[in-house]
Amino acid sequence: MALKNALIAALLLLATVLPAGMVEASELVMFERDGCAWCARWNREIAPGYDKTDEAKLLPLRRINMDHDKNPASRWHRRCASRRPS
Asked: What share of the chain is helix, strand, coil (3-state, %, to 5)?
């Protein structure tokens, strides 16, 4: 199970670092939960300026709240998401 999770994480990471010409759509996906201290820190320190960075132009941020998101397409991603920042 750990090997499968590591492989999925590696594939997701690879998809975000491929050159933009090779990938039609890339995004940074942030999985968050209510009460998450790391999410609060991101919101406080990084989120206010992220949209103005070159990284945001290449990898726009998509946030998935694991406590409230009901989108069936997100279920697979939520199962793969860790419960700690990575």
From this structure: 50, 10, 40
Tokens of 37: 């201290």
CA distance 42 to 85: 10
Residues 64 and 77 sit within 8 Å (Cβ to Cβ): yes
Whole-structure pTM value:
0.54
Return the higher-pLDDT residue of 12 and 35: 35
CA–CA distance, 16 with 56 (Å, rounded to integer): 12
Q: In angstroms, rounded to a whole number, what is the distance separating the alpha carbons of residues 27 and 25? A: 7
Distance from C-alpha of 49 to C-alpha of 55, rounded to nearest angstrom: 11
User: What digits encode the pLDDT tens for the residues 28-83?
Assistant: 888 888 898 988 999 999 999 999 999 899 889 988 887 777 765 556 555 556 55
